[in-house]
C-alpha cells in the first residue's frame, strides 16, 4: 500500500463516502441471503431480535468492505471501475477507512452476540476475518483461485442467519452456503472477461490474467455445471419444495445455456460485439442468486398453510 492518499486527501469526507466504504451493493446481497437463512430456519425468532440481528450482520458485511477498500487502495487507484471510490478519489484517508472498518467489526460482532447468540457472533467475526485477511490480504494477490476460495466469505451470511435462529449449523445451512459458494466463480469470472485489462494493470492474478480468457470460459462452464446439483439438492432439502425446485430447474437451465454460449465464443467474436453474451451472463448471474433465495422465501411463506416444503 502507498501513502498517496495522504496527499490526495483534499476535501472533507461526507456521509455518502462512508456509506460507499461499506460496499452497499455487496451488503444488499449479504442482508438478503442472511435474512433468508434466518427466516427459513425451523426455529421462530422474535421480530425485534431478527431485525437487530440482520442489522448487525449488515454492519459486519460493511466492515469487511471498508477493510477491503483500506488494504486494496493501491489496486483501486489503477482499476477504472474502482478509481472513483472514496480512498483513491481522496475523500477518505486509508487510516480513516481502517479505523472505520475495525470499529464496525467490533460493534457488529459484539452486538450480534448480545442480540442473538455468541455462536452467531463468532461466526460473523470469522467471516469478517476471512474476507479481510484470508481473501483480501492473501488470496487476492497470490493465486488465480482467489475467487474460488475467497468466495466462501460471501457464502457465509445465510449460515449466520440460520445460526441466529438455531444457534448452530445444519445440512440446510450448508446447502445454502454451497449455492452461493459455487455461484461466485462463474459470476466474477464473467465480469473479468469484459473488464479487459483492469486486473492485469493492477497485477491481480485473476484467472483471465494468469490463464487467459479461453481457459476462463472453460472454467465458467465447468463451475456452472457443478452449481446445478447444489441448487437441486437445496430444492430437495427440508427448506425446499415445489417452488424452489421449479426455480432451480429453470434458472440452472438458463445458466448452463448462457455458460455454453460463452464457452463456444472466440475472443475475436466477443470483442467484435462488445462482450454482449458475457455481460448478459453476468446480469443473469445476479438474478440467479436472488431468485433462488427468493424462492426459498416463497416456500417458507407457504409452509404454515401446508402448501410449501416437502
TrEMBL record:
<comment type="function">
    <text>Converts heme B (protoheme IX) to heme O by substitution of the vinyl group on carbon 2 of heme B porphyrin ring with a hydroxyethyl farnesyl side group.</text>
</comment>
<feature type="transmembrane region" description="Helical">
    <location>
        <begin position="146"/>
        <end position="168"/>
    </location>
</feature>
<keyword id="KW-1133">Transmembrane helix</keyword>
<dbReference type="InterPro" id="IPR006369">
    <property type="entry name" value="Protohaem_IX_farnesylTrfase"/>
</dbReference>
<feature type="transmembrane region" description="Helical">
    <location>
        <begin position="92"/>
        <end position="112"/>
    </location>
</feature>
<comment type="similarity">
    <text>Belongs to the UbiA prenyltransferase family. Protoheme IX farnesyltransferase subfamily.</text>
</comment>
<keyword id="KW-0808">Transferase</keyword>
<feature type="transmembrane region" description="Helical">
    <location>
        <begin position="118"/>
        <end position="139"/>
    </location>
</feature>
<feature type="transmembrane region" description="Helical">
    <location>
        <begin position="174"/>
        <end position="194"/>
    </location>
</feature>
<dbReference type="Pfam" id="PF01040">
    <property type="entry name" value="UbiA"/>
</dbReference>
<feature type="transmembrane region" description="Helical">
    <location>
        <begin position="245"/>
        <end position="263"/>
    </location>
</feature>
<keyword id="KW-0350">Heme biosynthesis</keyword>
<comment type="pathway">
    <text>Porphyrin-containing compound metabolism; heme O biosynthesis; heme O from protoheme: step 1/1.</text>
</comment>
<dbReference type="InterPro" id="IPR000537">
    <property type="entry name" value="UbiA_prenyltransferase"/>
</dbReference>
<protein>
    <recommendedName>
        <fullName>Protoheme IX farnesyltransferase</fullName>
        <ecNumber>2.5.1.141</ecNumber>
    </recommendedName>
</protein>
<keyword id="KW-1003">Cell membrane</keyword>
<dbReference type="InterPro" id="IPR044878">
    <property type="entry name" value="UbiA_sf"/>
</dbReference>
<feature type="transmembrane region" description="Helical">
    <location>
        <begin position="26"/>
        <end position="45"/>
    </location>
</feature>
<comment type="subunit">
    <text>Interacts with CtaA.</text>
</comment>
<feature type="transmembrane region" description="Helical">
    <location>
        <begin position="220"/>
        <end position="239"/>
    </location>
</feature>
<dbReference type="InterPro" id="IPR030470">
    <property type="entry name" value="UbiA_prenylTrfase_CS"/>
</dbReference>
<keyword id="KW-0472">Membrane</keyword>
<keyword id="KW-0812">Transmembrane</keyword>
<feature type="transmembrane region" description="Helical">
    <location>
        <begin position="284"/>
        <end position="307"/>
    </location>
</feature>
<feature type="transmembrane region" description="Helical">
    <location>
        <begin position="51"/>
        <end position="71"/>
    </location>
</feature>
<dbReference type="GO" id="GO:0008495">
    <property type="term" value="F:protoheme IX farnesyltransferase activity"/>
</dbReference>
Amino acid at each position: 500500500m502507498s501513502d498517496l492518499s495522504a496527499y490526495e486527501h483534499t476535501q472533507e469526507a461526507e456521509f455518502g463516502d462512508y456509506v460507499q466504504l461499506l460496499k452497499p451493493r455487496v451488503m444488499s446481497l449479504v442482508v438478503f441471503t442472511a435474512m433468508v437463512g434466518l427466516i427459513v430456519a425451523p426455529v421462530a425468532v422474535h421480530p425485534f431480535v431478527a431485525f437487530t440481528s440482520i442489522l448487525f450482520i449488515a454492519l459486519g458485511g460493511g466492515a469487511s468492505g471498508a477493510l477491503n477498500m483500506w488494504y486494496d487502495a493501491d489496486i483501486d487507484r489503477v482499476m477504472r471501475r474502482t478509481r472513483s471510490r472514496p480512498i483513491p478519489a481522496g475523500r477518505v484517508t486509508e487510516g480513516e477507512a481502517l479505523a472505520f472498518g475495525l470499529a464496525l467489526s467490533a460493534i457488529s460482532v459484539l452486538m450480534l452476540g448480545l442480540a442473538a447468540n455468541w455462536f452467531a457472533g463468532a461466526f460473523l467475526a470469522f467471516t469478517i476475518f476471512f474476507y479481510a485477511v484470508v481473501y483480501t490480504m492473501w488470496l487476492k494477490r497470490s493465486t488465480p483461485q482467489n475467487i474460488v476460495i475467497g468466495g466462501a466469505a460471501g457464502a457465509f451470511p445465510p449460515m449466520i442467519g440460520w445460526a441466529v435462529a438455531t444457534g448452530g449449523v445444519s445440512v440446510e445451512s450448508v446447502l445454502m452456503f454451497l449455492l452461493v459458494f459455487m455461484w461466485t466463480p462463474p459470476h466474477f469470472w464473467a465480469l473479468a472477461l469484459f473488464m479487459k485489462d483492469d486486473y492485469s494493470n493492477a497485477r491481480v492474478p485473476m484467472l483471465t490474467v494468469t490463464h487467459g480468457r479461453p481457459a476462463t470460459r472453460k472454467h465458467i462452464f465447468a463451475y456452472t455445471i457443478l452449481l446445478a446439483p447444489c441448487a437441486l439438492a437445496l430444492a430437495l432439502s427440508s427448506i425446499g419444495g415445489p417452488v424452489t425446485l421449479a426455480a432451480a430447474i429453470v434458472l440452472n437451465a438458463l445458466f448452463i445455456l448462457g455458460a455454453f454460449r460463452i464457452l463456444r465464443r472466440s475472443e475475436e467474436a466477443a470483442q467484435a460485439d462488445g462482450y454482449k453474451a458475457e455481460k448478459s451472463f453476468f446480469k443473469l448471474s445476479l438474478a440467479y442468486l436472488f431468485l433462488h433465495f427468493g424462492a426459498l422465501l416463497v416456500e417458507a411463506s407457504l409452509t404454515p398453510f401446508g402448501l410449501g416444503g416437502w
